[in-house]
Amino acid sequence: MHTTAVANPSLDSLIAATRATLERIAAEFSPAVFASSLAAEDMVLTDLILRHKLDIGIFTLETGRLHAETLGMLDRIRETYGYEVTPFRPEPAAIDAYVKQNGRDAFYESVDMRKECCRIRKIEPLKRALAGNKAWVTGQRRAQSVTRAELHVQEDDAAHGMIKFNPLADWSEQDVWDYIRANQVPYNPLHDRGYPSIGCEPCTRAIEPGEDVRAGRWWWENPESKECGLHVVDGKLIRIKPIAAAAD
Known about the structure:
Elements: H1 11-28, E1 32-35, H2 40-51, E2 57-61, H3 68-81, E3 86-88, H4 92-102, H5 111-130, E4 135-137, E5 154-157, E6 162-165, H6 173-183, E7 232-233, E8 236-237
Parallel strand pairs: 1-2, 1-4, 2-3, 4-6
Antiparallel strand pairs: 5-6, 7-8
């Protein structure tokens, strides 16, 4: 489910600013990588990176519980851009131990159990994916949820020892879909079925009209806890200090 096309006079300036940010990342922070969820926002960044042949690697966290439609985006990217997104997967032994001790779907039982599953399936693979890089890029936007309202375009991520960029921080949901339509960017078909935000299959549902775009993520939890841990340290959401020289 996505928004209807409307006039969007600000989109060109947003695209220009985002492209400039990505070009600066490639020029000044190499090697840098983009962590793609393969959802709409991240397809915008994928298109900008690959269309302009920017030296930023693209990887995804293949958790083992993704929708078939999400995994299908790897083929769509390969067919459209001739690019192989690198998948990072959880350690099989860690998955086996979690399932044996708690059950495969124990994440429904408590926030702690859910976060432990996310730690195994996302956070540990992310550390491996980021190793050896100077910067990483995300598709986060301020408008996505209350947990991301303080997002900056460029931040000092001390937790991972590198610079973190959120080039789409200023973009709205409308901006994302206007770009996708204007540039014929491939996107996850789940978006047309009421999934504006897509994570692991058992932790994502379609939303109702008028609900927050991330209401379908971990829908059984309070909004304040709805982060997987990729942007959390010691159980607390990272409020990373923006770099003074960065223009948001």
